[in-house]
Write a structure and sequence with these properties.
It is a single chain. With 893 residues, the chain is α/β, with parallel strands linked by helices. It has an 8-stranded mixed β-sheet. The chain has an 8-stranded parallel β-barrel with strand order 27-28-29-30-31-32-33-34, surrounded by 5 helices. The protein contains 35 helices and 34 strands. A hairpin with a 2-residue loop joins strand 1 and strand 2 (18-19). Helix 6 (158-172) crosses helix 7. The protein is elongated and about 105 Å long. The structure holds phosphoenolpyruvate and magnesium ion. Magnesium ion (MG) binds next to helix 31. Phosphoenolpyruvate is lined by residues 577, 579, 638, 763, 784-787, 849-850.
Length: 893
């Protein structure tokens, strides 16, 4: 039924069981148009119509004129509709009315425009009165059309129409629209037309063809309205996709009490249960459901009874149409092999389908639906794995906000660690600990956090900081702890002395309750209800399928027994990064750690290291037991100094007391250690080069713990000792020598043999460039993409949050490179290093342990490079397992 040749086809018709297009043509027809065509060919009841493709939209927006041939094609397509429905467009006796709707490739709900009841004018409205036998309905339809068309096409604010309606109701003593009689609606039409004439100095268009072209133009133009642009930016939808326009014969859900309009999901989008889920309104048009002016009714009797609702369900009042709807839902699911989200209208007991698409769902529902569809034989396991968004699994692993509580956030920051929590605001770690000891739930609010705050972070339900980015101290530590965290909430002004914070005009005092949603970065005043996670059977089933398909191993970044346990529960296969400096965050440990950093000479340092040795050994022993038989990568100390230096006099005094030196000594040493760029300062292997005794102590602790663990557990432990922030083969050779000498001495002293490996982080551009030389001394590489991103971009991990936000908002970058690996730039470095390493040592083990190790698209990239494993914080392990499986499957496509 094409109206022009396929190459230049400008209009795709559908109706009466046939269609020019099909579901695979979303790029051209948009989601709505493609699925309308598909439903038509399936023989479902779809009002006839046609789709003007997205290509025409882009052409029109570029040139401002209609492409040649479009007008003829549209006339021919209108003609086809006329023949199918037996009414004519603009005809005063039997007029055809149409809807004009947008429909892009990706769903952009409510972002673009729609016009209903088009084709009504002063003549055709009379025919509608005659045809429907319902004057009230006809005039109400006409006034709806004038209002919608004037708003969307003529640019007259809809409030003016709403005010006019309210005035009329007030004059005539009505409270509700339902009380209005036919003549009231007719009078309203007169007033609406006068309003248009006054606003535009010309009458409301009476020519139905002018109306149609005006609406088509407006819908195309709505692709570039501010809402749509913002939506596209937020959802990474390219600007050059354009929208299609769907013109379709009107069916009326507001004709009488045997008419209705509704939306339905073929399964419950919250739980995934196989039941018809949705709502409908008797005697209503689509916009009435969307606008929420009337409370919709249930579709099924069971759900009505469950909700204790009185008004009858569709199943009860329209059993015939309901039965047909149920059959169609089954047919659509079987056809699309997925849960569908549909829109329908019932006109005088006759069901019409207006839309179908894959329905959006929660992570819990996504898992259940994917697994159920496999059981039902509709999809295979590979497809099920691809159906679940790995990032969405986060929702299942942490408590989440009860979405129905819908409230506006008081403040927004960067969503650093997911989960929702409510508690009272405290501004210091000590206070957090004190209150938590008394059983009070607290949210720790700081400018930024440092190791001094660790006890408070432990005690708190969640952490909120005004500064910092996605890899700041607060973000990394909170993520590791599995606590909700928001960082870089720039509009939050904290006054520590007064014990209060302000956000614009809102004051938040210590002791006030707030709720944090770490998944969205939103902070709410007061307590919002949260929902506890539930790891259902489907979760384990799908994970099992994923594990059977993935090639890369998934390890975890963990320092504590608790983290290791959590990670094992989530399926970790080893530790890919143990940041030893994090093991000194506890209050009783930070003092000897500071003593070591602040010591004036080697003797002072060794004295402090003596205190640290048993602590380290004990920690490693716990980890080795917990991870029995699995690989454990332990990184030598890498403390950015500013995170460890004491700031207050009291903290400095504690260090002075412990070291037996004066406060002044500590102060002047702290001053001399002060660095302008601590991230680029005396950290990583640089520390081991200047102070070899630190690497010696750590090696001794690792090897001794390995010997003990092996003896007691009977399981061989293979520690992987990792040297951080290496930039040359020389640096690594120097530190490796210390490690090898110390390990040999320890093994000799204990008369034991431990297989250990020495490797390095690749986290500096020079390391990537010199990877072949570095691999001479490394058994493995682990990509530290946090530092690599920082140094390749030349931006600071701690400070970049603020301006990266602007970059994203203004479209300069798509995603925060600290969250998702910059594959073109930083990724090139990773690829180069992998190649360099393999050139020297073909069997070199390659992994990633930066935050990107838990990011699905970065994981896909790691699979492409053939890395051996990814390592991520414990709560991301399931995400990484699924993403790694998807990466393998998408390579096979
Ligand atoms: C990295 O730089 O990517 C890394 C894992 O180390 P850290 O975040 O501790 O610097
Ligand atoms: Mg690093």
């Amino acid at each position: 039924m094409s109206v022009s040749s396929p190459a230049e086809q400008m209009v795709y018709s559908f109706g009466d069981g046939t269609a020019d297009g099909h579901a695979g043509m979303k790029d051209v027809l948009g989601g709505k148009g493609a699925n309308l065509a598909e439903m038509c060919t399936l023989g479902l009841p779809v009002p006839p119509g046609f789709t003007i493709p997205t290509t025409v939209c882009m052409d029109f927006l570029a040139k401002g004129t209609w492409p040649a041939g479009l007008e003829d094609a549209v006339s021919a397509a209108i003609n086809q509709i006329e023949q199918i429905v037996g009414r004519r467009f603009g005809d005063a006796d039997a007029p055809l009315l149409v809807s004009v709707r947008s429909g892009a490739r990706a769903s952009m709900p409510g972002m673009m425009d729609t016009v209903l009841n088009l084709g009504l004018n002063d003549d055709t409205v009379k025919a509608l009165v005659d045809a429907s036998g319902d004057e009230r309905f006809a005039w109400d339809s006409y006034r709806r059309f004038i209002q919608m068309y004037s708003d969307v096409v003529l640019g007259i604010d809809h409030h003016m129409f709403e005010d006019t309606l309210e005035d009329l109701k007030e004059e005539r003593g009505y409270f509700r629209d339902l009380e209005m009689e036919a003549e009231d609606w007719r009078d309203l039409v007169v007033r609406y037309r006068a309003l248009v004439a006054e606003e535009l100095d010309e009458p409301f268009p009476q020519n139905v063809h002018d109306q149609l072209w005006g609406a088509i133009r407006a819908v195309f133009k709505s692709w570039t309205n501010a809402r749509a642009i913002t939506y596209r930016t937020l959802h990474n939808i390219p600007d050059d996709w354009g929208t299609a326009v769907n013109v379709q014969a009107m069916v009326f859900g507001n004709l009488d009490d045997d008419s209705a309009t509704g939306v339905a999901f073929t399964r419950d989008p919250n739980t995934g249960e196989r039941l018809l889920y949705g709502e409908f309104l008797v005697n209503a048009q689509g916009e009435d459901v969307v606008s929420g002016i009337r409370t919709p009714q249930h579709l099924t009797k069971a759900s009505r009874e469950h909700a204790g609702a009185k008004r009858p369900a569709m199943e009860e009042v329209m059993p015939r149409a309901y039965g047909q709807l149920v059959d169609i839902c089954t047919q659509l699911e079987t056809h699309y092999c997925d849960m569908q989200d549909i829109e329908f209208t019932v006109e005088q007991d006759r069901l019409w389908m207006l839309q179908t698409r894959s329905g959006k769902r929660t992570a819990k529902a996504a898992l259940k639906i994917a697994v159920d569809l496999v059981d039902e034989g509709l999809i295979d396991q590979d497809q099920a794995i691809m159906r679940v968004d790995p990032a969405a699994l986060d929702q299942l692993l942490h408590p989440t906000l009860d979405e129905e509580a819908g409230k506006t956030p008081a403040l927004k920051g960067l969503p650093a660690a997911p989960g929702a929590a409510a508690g009272i605001v405290v501004f210091s770690a000590d206070e957090a600990e004190r209150q938590a000891r008394d059983g009070v739930k607290v949210i720790l609010v700081r400018h930024e956090t440092s190791p001094e705050d660790i006890h408070g972070m432990h005690a708190a339900e969640a952490i909120l900081t005004a500064r910092g980015g996605m890899t700041s101290h607060a973000a990394v530590v909170a993520r590791g702890m599995g606590k909700p965290c928001i960082v870089g909430a720039g509009t939050l002004k904290i006054d520590l002395e007064e014990g209060r914070a302000t956000v614009l005009d809102t004051v938040i005092n210590a002791g006030d309750t707030i709720t944090i949603d770490g998944a969205s970065g939103s902070v709410y005043l007061g307590e919002m209800p949260t929902i506890e996670p539930e790891l259902t059977g489907e979760f384990a089933t799908l994970m099992g399928w994923a594990d059977a398909r993935r090639r890369m191993k998934v390890r975890t970044n963990a320092e504590t027994e608790r983290d290791a346990k959590t990670a094992i529960k989530f399926g970790a296969e080893g530790i890919g990064l143990c940041r030893t400096e994090h093991m000194f965050f506890e209050t009783d440990r930070i003092i000897p750690m500071r003593e070591m950093i602040l010591a004036n000479d080697e003797a002072g340092r060794r004295a402090a290291l003596e205190k640290l040795l048993p602590m380290q050994r004990g920690d490693f022993l716990e980890l080795f037991y917990e991870m029995a038989g699995l690989p454990v990568t332990i990184r030598l100390l890498d403390p950015p100094l500013h995170e460890f230096l004491p700031h207050s006099d009291a903290d400095m005094q504690d260090v002075a007391d412990a070291a037996g030196v004066s406060l002044d000594d500590v102060k002047s040493r702290a001053e001399s250690l002060h660095e302008l760029n601590p991230m680029l300062g005396h950290r990583g292997c640089r520390l081991a080069v200047t102070y070899p005794e630190i690497a010696e102590m750590q090696t001794q602790a690792i090897i001794e713990a390995a010997i003990w663990a092996a003896k007691e557990s009977g399981k061989a432990v293979v520690p992987e000792i990792m040297v951080p922030l290496v930039g040359s083969g020389g640096e690594l050779a120097f530190v490796k020598d210390i490690i090898d000498r110390t390990a040999a001495a320890v093994m000799k002293a204990h008369d034991a043999q431990i297989d250990y490996q020495v490797g390095t982080m690749i986290e500096l551009p020079r390391a990537a460039l010199m990877a072949d030389e570095i691999a001479d001394h490394a058994g493995f590489f682990s990509f530290g993409t946090n530092d690599l991103t920082q140094t390749v971009f030349g931006i600071s991990r701690d400070d970049a949050g603020g301006f990266l936000n602007d970059y994203q908002r203004k479209g300069v970058i798509d995603r925060d490179p600290f969250v998702s690996l910059d594959q073109q730039g930083v990724g090139k470095m990773v690829a180069m290093a992998a190649e360099g390493g393999r050139a020297t040592r073909p069997d070199i083990k390659l992994g990633i342990c930066g935050e990107h190790g838990g990011d699905p698209s970065s994981i896909t990239f790691c699979e492409e490079l053939g890395l051996d494993y990814v390592s991520c914080s414990p709560y991301r392990v399931p995400i990484a397992r699924l993403a790694a499986a998807q990466a393998v499957l998408s390579k096979q496509d």
